[in-house]
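Quick one, probably user error.
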C-alpha cells in the first residue's frame, strides 16, 4: 500500500506556516494569498488525517503532530535542495565556475582581472554571486567563495589570497595646515575616524590595534569616531 505523503509544494507551505506561525506572513514569503495557505494546510490535514495546527481567531499553534512534521519537512526540504544543487553541478560539468564574493572586492579587485582569466581559460564560463553573507556550498550551487576573514570555515578548503595592509590616510589640506604627521604619536593631535566591522569572529582593525602594532601602547581612543 502506497504511503500518503504531501508533495513538495505542500511541504513548503507547511514549513513556512509552521515557522512563522502566521498564514499571512507565510503567504507573503510564498507568493500566495493567506486563504491559499490555509486551504493547502487543510488539504494536508485531510490527506494525512492529522490536525497540524490549532486555530483561534487571532493565532495559530502547532499541535504535537504538527511539530513533528514541521521538523521533518524542514529536514526534507533542506536535503532535497542540497541534492538538486549537487545534481546541477554534475550536469553542468566543469565548464562553468560560480564564484561568490562581496561587491567591494568584485569592483575594486576582481573585475579588472576577469579578461586575463578568460584569455588563460577560454573554456571556462564565469558567473558571480555578489553577496556579503556566507553561502552554503551544497545548497546555494556555488563552487568558490572569496571572503574577508580568518579562513576558519568548517568543512571547506581555504587558501589565503593575500594579507591586508592597514594605513592611516588623510586629506592633503590637513597635511598642509594641521599639526605635522611624522610618526604614529603625531596622530594624537587629530580626531581619528575608523570603521566598526565584525563578521564571523573577525573584526576590522581599529585605531588601538593599529597603534599597538606601531609600538604605541598608551593610545587614548577617546578622540576616535
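Nope, works fine. Designed sequence:
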Amino acid at each position: 500500500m502506497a504511503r500518503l505523503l504531501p508533495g513538495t509544494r505542500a511541504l513548503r507551505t507547511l514549513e513556512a506556516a509552521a515557522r512563522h506561525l502566521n498564514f499571512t506572513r507565510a503567504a507573503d514569503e510564498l507568493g500566495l494569498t493567506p486563504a491559499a495557505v490555509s486551504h493547502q494546510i487543510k488539504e494536508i490535514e485531510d490527506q494525512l488525517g492529522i490536525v497540524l495546527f490549532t486555530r483561534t481567531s487571532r493565532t495559530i499553534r502547532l499541535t504535537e503532530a504538527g511539530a513533528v512534521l514541521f521538523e521533518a519537512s524542514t529536514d526534507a526540504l533542506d536535503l532535497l535542495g542540497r541534492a538538486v544543487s549537487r545534481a546541477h553541478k554534475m550536469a553542468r560539468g566543469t565548464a562553468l565556475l560560480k564564484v561568490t564574493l562581496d561587491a567591494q572586492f568584485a569592483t575594486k579587485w576582481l573585475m579588472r582581472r576577469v579578461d586575463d582569466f578568460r584569455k588563460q581559460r577560454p573554456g571556462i564560463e564565469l558567473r558571480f554571486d555578489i553577496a556579503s553573507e556566507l553561502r552554503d556550498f551544497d545548497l546555494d550551487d556555488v563552487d568558490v567563495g572569496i571572503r574577508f576573514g580568518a579562513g576558519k570555515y568548517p568543512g571547506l578548503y581555504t587558501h589565503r589570497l593575500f594579507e591586508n595592509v592597514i594605513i592611516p590616510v588623510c586629506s592633503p589640506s590637513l597635511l598642509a595646515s594641521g599639526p605635522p604627521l611624522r610618526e604614529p604619536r603625531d596622530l594624537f593631535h587629530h580626531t581619528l575616524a575608523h570603521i566598526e566591522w565584525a563578521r564571523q569572529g573577525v573584526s576590522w582593525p581599529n585605531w588601538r590595534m593599529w597603534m599597538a602594532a606601531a609600538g604605541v601602547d598608551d593610545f587614548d581612543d577617546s578622540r576616535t569616531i
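The domain at 94-146 is CATH 3.40.190.10 (D-Maltodextrin-Binding Protein; domain 2).
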